[in-house]
Amino acid sequence: MRSEKMADRISVPLSVDVERGYGETGRQVKENIRRLLRAGASGFNLEDGQSDGALSPVELQIEKIRAIAELKERRNRLCHKRQDMRVLA
User: Fold this and answer.
1) What number is the average pLDDT over the span 21-41?
2) Least confident of 17-31, 42-56, 66-80
3) DSSP designation for 15
4) CB atoms < 10 A from the CB of 52, how many?
5) 45 in the Ramachandran plot: left (φ > 0), alpha (ψ -120 to 50) or beta?
6) In 4, 18, 36, 48, which residue has its Cα 20 to 30 A from 27's Cα atom?
7) CA nearest 56: which of 13, 14, 26, 31?
8) What is the DSSP letter of 74?
9) Residue (of 16, 29, 36) closest to 64 by Cα position
10) What is the SS3 assignment for 11?
11) What is the pTM (predicted TM-score) of this model?
C-alpha cells in the first residue's frame, strides 16, 4: 500500500484522498479506511460525487460516514467530507 510507504518516510501527518471511499457500501468503505489508518494515514478526504458526475444519494453518504465512525482506529484522526456541488453548478 503506497500510503504505508509514505507514512514511514515522513514526519508529518498523512492525509489521503479516498475519492468515494473506493467502495459502494458503508461496509466496503469502512474496511478501506481501516486499512489506510492501520497503514499510517492520519486523515482522509471522502467525496460525495459519483463516477457519472452526479451526487451520491444522501442515504449512502450517511451510511458511509456512520460505518467509518464505528472504527476504533479513528481516535485522533481527521475525516474531511468534501462536497462536489461546485462540479454540478
Assistant:
1) 90
2) 66-80
3) E
4) 5
5) beta
6) 4
7) 26
8) G
9) 29
10) coil
11) 0.76
